[in-house]
Design goal:
heterodimer; A: 423 residues; alpha/beta; eight-stranded parallel β-sheet; globular; B: 226 residues; Rossmann fold; 8 helices; 8 strands
Chain lengths: 423, 226
């Protein structure tokens, strides 16, 4: 299909491009920006006046729940939801059943994702077998099957020595390891940030040190092993300060935050609403400001949804008996636009954190809007608004933003020159 | 007269997801003396172990046309959750939820204080022991504040104090002698044995030596009988 997109404000954070022009797509690639090449005749044209055209969003953590948790979501439903949020590439975490620690599971996910055709899916393999933190998963087999990075989620390694060896092994083959730094012992049994709100509600706390103690250790191990590392889902101001220190020392580590952590704080828990039960937990206003500053400065180069869809029953119980997580990938763009609306970020910087930043962190072939690059893009109307939940595609309705009016509306999501979402 | 017809024709369900003797029997007695029909269910030993969810259990009880549930549950916020999900004409009374609140125990403690001391405006009240895990302490702190008590103190080692306890408007002491100086009322919290295992305290003996209510910690002359 030959597609021309006419008169959009084209923003490519990677090259600094930001002006009103035309895009021409053919055979899954961007073949020209500006005038159409000689002899090009579009089979379809989008009048994009008033719209912004940007690289398709890259989300580093979208739980697809398949295989194993079809009651919560599946590859078709969750990639459709992602496309609606402007996402063209996503990484899925290894927390499936069976765990994503074999090439068979990797291939199954990739096959289903290709069949669904809504998004490019890049699986994150388990760093240890069964995520049990004892024995290394077959990292090279997983890499060859299509895993782009390896992580153990919030599950910790049984011993620091085993973790250290896992990092050395990954470093041998230049694999990227994703850390969700949280000390298992300090966090055990915790349900909310250890602070005034949790104390008042009588909820067992997860101290800030659960993050910082593990993070400090992990950064030292990264430095020693020389492994390529990405730190995911940071929650505390002191945590991002540790990342900033490491980067200033010259350690090439990258980091992401969950979008909801930039918006919510632990004050949301005051009515015991299980919609705000997340792991790692929502922290204080000061932490949120610290995360926001780190996103602005670039210490944190990626914003991800950390999408975790659940069935209704998973959230229908007293707070402590519910499952953690928020379903929000289909609101990624409009929800993130609140950061522009509030004046924290300018639009190109926001788009960088949602595309170039995450793509570079995991070396994904995505996040660029340039001639010759894959035609993965999002077209959105910055002047319009989205009523969250008016249409809902994810199987998980566990989203505290439903009913909110958010800035901007995604009009088209395009993957390899093919329209995967249109509104 | 012990029995009044205030709740005649009403049905009260005591739904206890956690073991209780005092709270359960006092609620039963109160319901009977107000002429309500009362049934008590110990859910911890029945449906929960058969895989029935909390909501399933509640729907079943709702169907019996109960007018009020008195709920005790081990999870903080359980009464809140139940109140949100049962039909609106059913009243919910919190009989203790996790570490969060135990309002009726708090009211009872306040009544006891008022009977002995008259009013709260000039009182010093100390709460001693495991504040961290205590729903009673939380309810008592809120109640004392609400009733205008000007000097609320908590006395405990740091391991048994929740972070941010200052939000209740209390003064924190880690020494019994200093904390009990000139107080009018002392509330001693129960200490559960399992606290030793978690490393919160070295031993019962050491805890008693430091935080026990002894004549040495609270000399008799400073007690003001009324």
């Amino acid at each position: 299909m030959k597609l021309s997109i006419l008169g959009a404000r084209v923003i490519d954070p990677a090259s600094g491009l930001d002006h009103i022009t035309h895009l021409h797509l053919e055979a899954g690639k961007v073949i020209a920006i500006g005038a159409a090449p000689a002899g090009f005749s579009a089979s379809e044209t989008i009048d994009a006046k008033g719209l912004v055209a940007a690289p398709g969003l890259v989300d580093l953590n979208v739980a697809l729940r398949e295989p194993g948790y079809s009651r919560k979501g599946n590859i078709i439903s969750e990639t459709r939801a992602a496309a609606a949020g402007g996402v063209t590439s996503l990484c899925c975490p290894p927390h499936t059943k069976p765990v994503l620690d074999t090439s068979a599971v990797t291939e199954l996910i990739l096959d289903r994702a290709r069949e669904a055709g809504n998004c490019k899916v890049f699986p994150i393999g388990a760093l240890s077998k069964g995520l049990e933190g004892e024995q290394l998963a077959e990292l090279i087999a997983l890499r060859d099957a299509g895993c782009v990075a390896f992580g153990n989620g919030l599950e910790s390694f049984r011993s620091t020595r085993t973790l250290c060896r896992a990092l050395e092994y990954a470093a041998t083959f230049d694999l990227t390891v994703i850390f969700h730094s949280q000390d298992h012992d300090l966090a055990e049994g915790g349900l909310a940030h250890e602070g005034a709100v949790a104390s008042f509600l009588g909820l067992p706390g997860i101290p800030e040190t659960a993050e910082t103690v593990a993070l400090a250790r992990d950064l030292l191990l990264v430095e020693q092993s020389g492994v390529r590392a990405h730190f995911s889902q940071l929650t505390s101001a002191r945590g991002v300060a540790l990342i900033a220190q490491a980067q200033a020392r010259g350690l090439p580590v990258t980091a992401d935050v969950a979008l909801y952590q930039l918006i919510l704080t632990d004050e949301a828990l005051i009515d015991f609403s299980s919609l705000y039960h997340v792991q790692p937990p929502l922290r204080t206003r000061a932490d949120r400001e610290g995360l926001r500053a780190a996103v602005k400065s670039g210490v944190v180069s990626a914003i991800s949804s950390h999408h975790q869809p659940h069935e209704r029953d998973a959230k229908l119980a007293p707070f402590g008996a519910t499952e953690p997580g928020i379903s929000s990938v289909e609101l990624l763009l409009p929800l993130a636009m609140t950061l522009v609306e509030e004046g924290l970020l300018d639009l190109p910087t926001l788009l960088a954190r949602l595309s170039t930043g995450p793509a570079e962190a995991l070396r994904l072939p995505a996040g660029k809007l340039a001639v010759g690059a894959p035609a993965d893009l999002v077209l959105f109307d910055p002047a319009s608004s989205t009523i969250a939940g008016e249409h809902w595609l994810s199987k998980g309705e566990n989203c505290p933003f439903i009913g909110h009016s958010l800035p901007a509306t995604v009009r088209y999501t395009i993957v390899d020159g093919r329209i995967t979402y249109q509104a | 007269m012990k029995k009044v017809p205030l709740l005649r024709g009403k049905t009260i369900c005591n739904v206890f997801f956690e073991n209780s003797t005092r709270t359960r029997t006092t609620f039963e007695l109160a319901a009977q003396r107000l002429s309500a029909d009362v049934i008590t269910l110990n859910v911890s030993t029945s449906s929960a172990s058969k895989g029935e969810t909390l909501l399933d259990t509640l729907r079943n009880l709702e169907a019996m046309a109960a007018d009020m549930f008195v709920v005790r549950h081990g999870d903080s916020g359980a009464a809140h959750f139940i109140a949100e999900h049962v039909c609106p004409q059913v009243a919910i009374i919190n009989g203790g939820d996790g570490r969060h609140a135990h309002p009726t125990q708090g009211m009872l403690d306040m009544l006891t204080i008022r009977r002995h001391k008259g009013s709260f405006e000039n009182l010093s009240v100390a709460i001693v022991g495991d504040i961290l895990h205590s729903r009673v302490a939380r309810s008592n702190m809120l109640a004392l504040k609400t009733l205008g008590c000007p000097d609320i103190r908590v006395i405990a080692p740091k391991t048994l104090l929740p972070i941010g306890i200052e939000q209740y408007g209390v003064k924190v002491y880690t020494d019994m002698t200093a904390g009990l100086k000139d107080v009018d009322v002392v509330i001693m919290l129960r200490l559960q044995r399992e606290r030793m295992a978690g490393g919160l305290l070295p031993s019962e003996g050491e805890f008693y030596r430091l935080f026990g209510l002894t004549p040495r910690a609270w000399p008799a002359p400073s007690r003001t009988p009324s």
